């Protein structure tokens, strides 16, 4: 017994042939056993892949964004918003009795790439003295991620907006 399935589009087709033979199970019931699957794919016209045509509409009306004005620099935009105090968030390591120097030195470098094990030990001692320590200042999305990963690693963490005051 054979099953044939096919799919055709404008430029290519696929035909699948499933060959199967009847088999008899140990209890005497008749069933089907799959022997092999053959797939044939190709193009109706040339046998190769289809090529997309370039659009024919006039693109001269659009200003290319890479054009530099007189004396300008292509790589920088003056009105581009930088990371100011409103965009930055502090990731804090909050002191907890469950924290050990070893745990902090293990988890922090895994979570925050710029923190070394020695930096993590220093942050541990600062958090013990002051109740919290600033691990990193970054954009909100990264700060949330780092804080969540620290919590998953067994550390207490929170994020607060960076006021910009030193």
TrEMBL record:
Top-level taxonomic group: Eukaryota
Pfam families: ClpS
UniProt region (Disordered), positions on chain: 50-87
Domain Adaptor protein ClpS core as annotated: residue spans: 87-151
Composition bias, Low complexity: 57-67
An annotated GO BP: protein catabolic process
Record field: compositional bias (Basic and acidic residues): 73-82
InterPro entries assigned to the protein according to its UniProt record, in alphabetical order: ClpS, ClpS_core, Ribosomal_bL12_C/ClpS-like
Protein name stated in the entry: Adaptor protein ClpS core domain-containing protein
Lineage of the organism: Eukaryota, Viridiplantae, Streptophyta, Embryophyta, Tracheophyta
């Amino acid at each position: 017994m054979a099953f044939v399935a096919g799919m055709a589009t404008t430029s290519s087709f696929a035909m699948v042939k499933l060959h199967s033979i009847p088999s008899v199970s140990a209890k005497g019931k008749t069933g089907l056993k799959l022997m092999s699957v053959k797939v044939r794919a190709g193009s109706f016209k040339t046998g190769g892949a289809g090529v997309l045509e370039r659009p024919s509409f006039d693109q001269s009306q659009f200003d290319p964004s890479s054009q530099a004005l007189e004396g300008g620099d292509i790589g920088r935009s003056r009105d581009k918003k930088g990371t100011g105090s409103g965009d930055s968030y502090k990731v804090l390591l909050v002191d907890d009795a469950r924290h050990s120097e070893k745990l902090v030195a293990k988890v922090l470098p895994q979570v925050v790439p710029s923190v070394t094990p020695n930096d993590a030990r220093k942050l541990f001692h600062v958090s013990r003295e002051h109740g919290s320590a600033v691990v990193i200042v970054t954009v909100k999305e990264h700060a949330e991620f780092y804080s969540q990963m620290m919590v998953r690693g067994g550390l207490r963490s929170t994020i607060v907006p960076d006021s910009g005051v030193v």
